[in-house]
Amino acid sequence: MRTDDLIDALAADAGRGSEPAPPRRLAFVAGLGGLAALLLVLGWLQARPDLGQAILGPMFWVKAIYTGLLGLAGYLAVERLSRPGGSGRRGWIIGAVVFGACAVAGIYQAITSPDVQAALKLLHGYSWRSCSPRILVLGLPMLALGLWALRGMAPTRPGLAGFAMGLFSGGVVATVYGLHCPEHTFTFLALWYSLGVLALGLIGGWAGRWLLRW
Description:
214 residues
């Protein structure tokens, strides 16, 4: 029997067996991963000093909605990919649409700026050098826990499953990171927040190819 045939047979048998309850496991991963990110933000980065005022403004919630939707897209993808033969198509579509909308808004903000310096200010903000790396660091605990949880499920596309788990982790922790980050432009959000989430996805995809193989 060829290796691919054996994997297909094992996947079919896993599908007939007891369900590993991916939604419950993924909710557990998100809860612990979000808590770890919150503790890191409060103990390492500190909450932004104007948090009480910031939560009254719309952009604080726009950031949270954007990153939350990226996390939802990753969740929908990994929830399907954790099962035999899952594709994650719905999650990919939602993620692409959400990112595309934010990117269009960011480009519009930049091109309608008064001058080049103003556009660069929108792009760089106050923390462009540290934003993506911090999201990456905050997301590593959740990603590691998520990959461990996936090993107890039945993904037949390990690289894609790991990538989706990385996006899920990135969306969750980027939302928590908003408690610290003072940036408030679509231009900044579309680039630096998205790069941090994507970096976790790429690491998850690379690690998943090895850790999630049958």
